[in-house]
Amino acid sequence: MIARRNLFEQLPTVALNPDNFEALYSAEQFRTYLINKIRNASNRIYIVALYLENDEAGREILTELYETKQRNPGLDIQICVDWHRAQRGLIGAVKSQGNAQMYQEFANNYDHKIPVHGIPVRSREVFGVLHLKGFIIDDTVIYSGASLNNVYLGYKDRYRYDRYHTLENKTLADAMVSYILDSIITHSAVHELTNESRPTTKELKPAIRQYRSSLALSSYRFDSQQISENEVAVTPLVGLGKRRNNLNRHIVNLIAQAKEEIFICTPYFNFPKSVSSQVKKALKRGVKVHIIVGDKTANDFYIPPTETFKTIGGLPYLYELNLRRFAKLNEARIASRQLSIHLWKHDDNSFHLKGIWVDKKFMLLTGNNLNPRAWKLDLENGLFIQDRNYLIKDKFEREFDCILQHTQLICCYKQIEKLDDYPLAVQKLIKRILRIKADRILKQIL
Questions:
Q1: Of 55, 64, 84, 131, which residue is the catalytic one?
Q2: Please, what is the average pLDDT of the chain?
Q3: Which pLDDT value is given to residue 10?
Q4: 380 catalytically annotated
Q5: pLDDT tens-place string over residues 43-102
Q6: Is the pTM above the cut of 0.85?
Q7: 303-319, pLDDT tens digit by residue?
Q8: Which residues make Cβ contacts (< 8 Å) with residue 21, sequence separation at least 6?
Q9: In which band, very low, low, confident or very high, does the pLDDT at 2 lie, cut at 50, 70 and 90?
């Protein structure tokens, strides 16, 4: 345990004034805050997201960016999105040119262009995507797991619930911008999606392999600062792949050093083995564990029984079966309240929260889903916060009160549906998956 604590103490840190850290509590607040920051930007705007969608909310954000650029042509604006996701339509939709068509349209309609960089983490989307998080506007970092479209921004009547935090700190903002400039957008594998003539993924395969290797060795670089008793320590972390993944290593260490209490948020209950093992060890040593996970109906892949069922709709049920097995194995701990499983559900909205909070003083803000895909395939990052003097504890407590507002506490594993309770089409699919043992593969890549 001492060695693990020393590992955290050896991390380079950014000193953050607690007054410059805030949590936002809804998709609507996030959207309003983001638009206001874009409109008032004076120096730089760096947007990194899995996707910037061609829908009403996506167009609104891109319009705000372009209008701000026209007013201030010297403003440094860079957008990074996943190469593959940007060039295809939605799953189940008709074939299209994807969001890249919108990026080209905007570039053709304005005098001062904004580059949209396509980031190919792997030569096929299923084996790895850009899952880096963090928007940098001037000296403010806006950190959320959300991408940019109608549902993430609560544009209409439905929202996808995420976490949203703002950190105003020049050193942190500079470090995250430098990483984007030095490690992300300068490689030969990266091309602008605003250009109609761009290479195919097949042509880029050798460059993508080199790019992935360089990303796996990359890190945020900054001069470490001393942390006073009136400040909070922040360390940006990045990771890609199973080996030498600094982010994964610190996630495991974070859970392993817990003494009293752990809060874990994940949209898909499918822990990597190392995380599952540390959670099990934490329970054995008496740590109180809270797991906050979306109900299967709040999963973004869920298909209501009233709609035509597609294979992808089986995923939420597979995750729920994982959760039921876990709850059954830990029935005694659930009964004693040492383990609390909170199922989130609010009307027909969806759940996309991630993060870990340990002993009310260590927090990881991350887009990492804490699943095998995030562990091995996607480019992920996070902000590790050490709040040893509980300077921002009240802010996190208010946030978690808000999160728990729409959750149901599981008192017995039997509250969670079993396979026989599922619609017939789902039962047939899952039985077939289990029979050929395909669930092991699916859990690694989805």
A1: 131
A2: 95
A3: 87
A4: yes
A5: 999 999 999 999 999 999 999 999 999 999 999 999 999 999 999 876 544 456 799 999
A6: yes
A7: 999 999 998 999 999 99
A8: 165, 166, 167, 168, 232, 392, 395
A9: very low
- Identified catalytic residue from 192, 378, 380, 399: 380
Query: Does the annotation mark 131 as catalytic?
Result: yes
Catalytic-labelled residue, pool 53, 64, 82, 162: 162
